[in-house]
Design a protein that fits this description.
heterodimer, A: mainly beta, 4-stranded antiparallel beta sheet, B: 114 residues, 50% strand, globular
Chain lengths: 117, 114
């Protein structure tokens, strides 16, 4: 079974600074995918970034980058130059192998990020 | 940009009533999902659907739940006899292909069972 652990219930950062949100995972699969989603107070889930287990380079999407350390089973999200609009809940997720293939996403408990002016 | 839509945004129902939550996935997507998020908790997988049948379901998805794609665009989740513990945000998601492709989520339906 897959498991995602996010140990930081809340994080604070000042505007324009960088912040790292931690995520560790556990799986027996050799091939897997890791995702980060943002959930603003309005409730929707917004896809941010994806990292495949065989990708040798860390994924980047604009101000988001994923610090992937396979041996340590960690997939931390780095947000550079934080903006007030980054204040939200952030979920790390893994594409787990269900009974019929890589279907479901398994989520962590989330980290609430608050960006202050 | 194409997006997943869900209706209604908020539904209040009495315990024991049936509810149907509706979703319109992105038009060229083939894989559809329902997830649930109880207030303040993590998002949990309920069911995945492909080629007009359930491909996987979680332990939460018991006989009270059913899914259907009644036409070429809608994807519905039915809860036959709601319980208080069914109160949650329900997210529909879709993806173009199976495997490591992002799932695009709808804005969610907040279900309140009284």
């Amino acid at each position: 079974a897959q498991k995602i652990t996010q140990t930081q219930p809340g994080m604070f950062v000042q505007e324009k600074e960088a912040v790292t949100l931690d995520c560790t995972y556990d799986t027996s699969d050799q091939s897997y995918g890791l995702f980060w989603y943002k959930q603003p107070s309005s409730g929707e889930m917004i896809f941010l970034i994806y990292q495949g287990s065989y990708d040798e380079q860390n994924a980047t999407e604009g101000r988001y980058s994923l610090n992937f350390q396979k041996a340590r089973k960690s997939a931390n999200l780095v947000i550079s130059a934080s903006q007030l609009g980054d204040s939200a809940m952030y979920f790390c997720a893994m594409r787990g192998r269900g009974n019929t293939g890589f279907q479901k996403l398994v989520f962590g408990t989330g980290t609430r990020l608050l960006v202050s002016p | 940009e194409p997006e997943v839509t869900q209706t209604p945004s908020h539904q209040v129902t009495q315990m024991g009533q049936e509810v149907i939550l509706r979703c319109v996935p992105i038009s060229n997507h083939l894989y559809f999902y329902w997830y649930r998020q109880i207030l303040g908790q993590k998002v949990e997988f309920l069911v995945s659907f492909y080629n007009n049948e359930i491909s996987e379901k979680s332990e939460i998805f018991d006989d009270q739940f059913s899914v259907e794609r009644p036409d070429g665009s809608n994807f519905t989740l039915k809860i036959r006899s709601t319980k208080l513990e069914d109160s949650a945000m329900y997210f529909c998601a879709s993806s173009e292909r199976q495997g490591f492709y992002e799932q695009y989520f709808g804005p969610g339906t907040r279900l309140t069972v009284t």
